[in-house]
Structures
1.
Amino acid sequence: MPEEPFADRDPASPIETVILALTRDLGDGFEVRRALPSMRRRMVGPFIFFDQMGPAVFRSGQGLDVRPHPHIGLATVTYLFDGEILHRDSLGTVQPIRPGAVNWMTAGRGIAHSERTPPSVRAKGGRLSGIQIWVALPKRQEQTDPAFAHTPADELPVVEDGGKRVRLIAGSLYGARSPVRTLSELFYADAVLEPGARLEVPADHEERAIFVVEGSVALGGETFPASQLLILRPRQAVVIEAHGDARVLLLGGATMAHLVEPGLQLARADRAGESGLGVGTLSQGSRRDGLHPASGP
């Protein structure tokens, strides 16, 4: 299925392009949908990578197993809708993440981490659904010290009005600011909409996008179902309307002064890992980059 479901876009449309997140089955029925990078758009503001995990249901003994691997020169951000993941990294962090909370890991000059289903959850089975994104760092801060920050769900601002509930994951939006520390101006928010609810996406940031997580939304006379990333034209405030219950993610920021290629970052991270980022301290098993459902802890 093509990434762009529409052959041409009306120049008057508030939408610059539409990216259909491509599905990858990683085994045992666990799927991710990748919206960024795409042939049509490499980045949105500082956001360079966007994966939707699941929704998946694991049987007893199964779970997510992102084995120890390195990152360098960017930040990884994990946010869940359902389930639980246990994060470990080479700084010594051991931190579970649950729905509505944020794990923000700044790789900087280098860090290694793993993300797995906790043994207690794996033993009985369970659901998993969420988003992992990568955020590019400003050029002058790509070699900053690595850091990890966990922000519980109850510390994030929530804006509620007219059938919509918006949790601000990072940055600033609708007059609120998330306590999550970032190194550039951006916004990243989770919006749950009741049927008929209308949500404005202001034109404050240069580059903006809407990812439809669940349900469908209307914008510019068109309807967009789940798993589509809508890239908005700059300098135009837009209003989306929910068709039934819907959930969307809002994200964006200023255009980056330099293009960041995730593949190049992975290659640099692999070389850094081989130089001793602490991958071995996280696991005695083989290192594997990527999401992989495992049948054991």
2.
Amino acid sequence: MSDSNVLHDTPAEFLRDIAQQPGRCTAQSVIPLDDGTYACACSCETWEVIAPSRQEGLQLARRHTGSI
């Protein structure tokens, strides 16, 4: 793993950065639901979807942020 992939912030610093940048795509989440699907959302608060799998949720998050 290269240094560019290492998270250097503490969790508190990470959450503070999100709170200080409202409307920006600072963080995305892919959270499992009881029915086997995944709730996907972004800190920009304008993107939220349900994905059929974790992999699809991650792919959708990458598309949302333009990282692919």
3.
Amino acid sequence: MSQPIEVLRAWEGGPLREFAAIRPKPGWGIPYDGPKPYANSYICEECRKPRVGLYFLKVEADDAQIALATPASVDPTRCRERLWVCGACKSVLIPKQEQPKVLKGTPRPEARA
């Protein structure tokens, strides 16, 4: 009989993570001092899949801008949403900025002798 695995916050405001009271199989998870004694993978809040690492994103209350952040840098009075997401979801939520094109005909600096 397999043991139930629950998805819970690792800490208040922290990422989602898989937890179990008893290891469902040998080698699953690590001992953890949290909501349950064993923890395994982090869970992306966007795609809901287990991931090795996550990025913390914030959405400011006064606009719809999504930005990378650190949990300590978030002002709770201005932040309307916080997300822990995987790299693939981050690249969809925060598209890469287009690189400027090199200006044609711009003279190159002369090499110094």
4.
Amino acid sequence: MADFLPKIHYCDSLNAIVVMDYYPDFQETNHVTREENIILAMGKCISRLITRITGIHVTDIHDDNVRDKNGNAVIIDWGY
């Protein structure tokens, strides 16, 4: 899961100071909107987390397979 966490060089929790690498914001790429790129990236993160916890490889998490359940996200397509 380290791929999804920032590299932290310095942390002072008393003064709320964190120094980490710079990570640019998502951009539009190849006719895919910025928002779609964010959703795809989060899907990769969630897929890897599910695999780590359950051992089940889920690779189809994207905006069409995440729905609203009382204000929370629910993954509806588990046809891994």
